[in-house]
Each structure stands twice: as structure tokens, then as C-alpha cells.
Predict the 3D structure of the following.
Amino acid sequence: MKKILFYTLLFLLSLSLMAEDSYDWLFEHDWHLKDPISDSIRWSPPNVIFRKFEIPPNTTLYQVRLRKELFYFLYQTEREKEKLYPIGSAFGTLPFDIEFRDNFSFMIRNRNGMFFNSGQRVGKQENPRYPLVGIWGSLPSLNEYRLVDPAGCVFYMEISKQIPGMALREGTYLLRKTGVNSFETISSFPDGCLKIEIRSDDRLYLSPLFTLPEDERGHVISLNIRRSTNDQSDE
């Protein structure tokens, strides 16, 4: 009984220490997603990384969804409104140059001086102050841009690929602290809403905070995020 009490207190102390630090230890390791029930790998597990979130002041931040498969973030500064800078690497790390034509109904996007893609606006212009907001292009390159408020965001998470049969999207997610060792994503899209809980220094718990519409298939289930290190197994 004393031994159980000792390890319980030790575990609570470790959680307390994690709650008080800056979570730098999250950034020092790579992680991967695993099945939460059997904890066995039934598919090649996506890699997960955590990084600090830093953008210049007075910027406009966009969350972009490619089809219903990938999330990424781009920001625009007051001085360079013709450029879009990515956060993370989910859609490349080089900035985009954007050009609008035909009264903001057509957009051309270049990267590193070379043509990247272009697209017609789908529907009407939703926000005259921010002409980028809206849906652009056509399948398979259909991108929707939405404004997002990064207030309270402390770091971001990247999921390297989509999991077959599951509703969790790949890409980049911004995270804000919501409690002791718990975080939630900052998202303008319902299917970008997730919760992360720190269970130990080598295991996190990811829970979707959304449901899918009836016309879309995919399992909405929680997953473990396990630490990937050479000096510690995942057992």
C-alpha cells in the first residue's frame, strides 16, 4: 500500500512539474500516433512534432483547408500584403507571392519565383477587407481560407499524414492551454477542433472535439501520441 501511495505521489509530482514548465521537452522529441485500444500499429503511424508558435506582431493569420484532408496556416504582414508566410512545414516552408485579378475573383500563387497554382473564387467575395477569405480553385486543388485568431496560442503541432478511414486530418494545428496539462486547437473549421492531454512524459492523448456530417465517412476516435526516441521504447 505504501509503495502504491509513493508511486501515485511521484506521478502527481511529475504532472505538477510538467504543468509549471514551458513544455520545452515536447519540442525536443518526435512523436507518433498509435491505436488507443490495442496500442498496436495497424498502419504506418503518422509522425507528430511540436514546435513553438511565433509570428510577427500585427499580422493577419489564415487557416487553410485543402479539400477535407489537410490543414495549414499562412500569415500576412501589414507591410507585405502580397506575401503569405507558412507556419510549420505541412505545405512547405517557403513563402508564397499572391496576385489577384478580375476584381479579386481570380488568384495566382507563386513560390520562390515560380508558378505554384491559381484558382477562380468559388462563390461571392465574403470579406472585402480580407479578399483572400473564401474558397479558391477546383478539385483536386480546392483551398478554403478562413481568418483565425491566435490569441493564447503557445505552440503548434504537425501530423505528417492522414490516417486511412479516420476523420483526423493531417497538417498543422495551433494549440492553446486550457487546463493543467491540457490543450485545445485554435481552429476556424469544426473538423480542426482537437484536445491534447499530457498523460506522462512519453504519452499524450488526442481527442477529436467534432462530429462529421452524415454525408462524410470517417472514424472520429481518440488516439494516443507516443514519444519516438532511440533511448526509450514505446512499451
Q: What stands out?
A: The helical segments are 2-20, 24-27.
